[in-house]
Design a protein that fits this description.
- The chain is α+β, with helices and mostly antiparallel strands and 82 residues long.
- The chain has a domain at 31-74.
- Helix content is 23%, strand content 7%.
- The protein has a two-stranded antiparallel sheet with strand order 1-2.
């Protein structure tokens, strides 16, 4: 015999239930740290200094952090060695 259990809400209190957990803007982060963060849940440090785990990929036209963009544009051209 099978039985259906009642649905239990396991979300922490204060969770936004609108379903809109998209970041307000995206940040520039070292490429080699993005996959590690997405898989392992580690935090990354953006060019602007913001620290966060990678949870979303930007889509074309997504808003970009103006501080990250300014810093990125001021960097010398070259590889992403580290």
């Amino acid at each position: 015999m099978t039985q259906t259990l009642p649905e239990t809400d396991t979300r922490p209190e204060g969770t936004d239930t609108t379903g809109d957990d998209a970041p307000k803007m995206f940040h520039y982060v070292r490429k080699n740290k993005i996959a590690e963060s997405a898989v392992m849940g580690t935090h990354v440090v953006a060019l602007c200094g913001e620290v966060f785990p990678v949870t979303r990929s930007p889509k074309p036209g997504s808003p970009v952090c103006p501080d990250c963009k300014r810093i990125y544009e001021g960097l010398r051209p070259g590889g992403d060695d580290d």
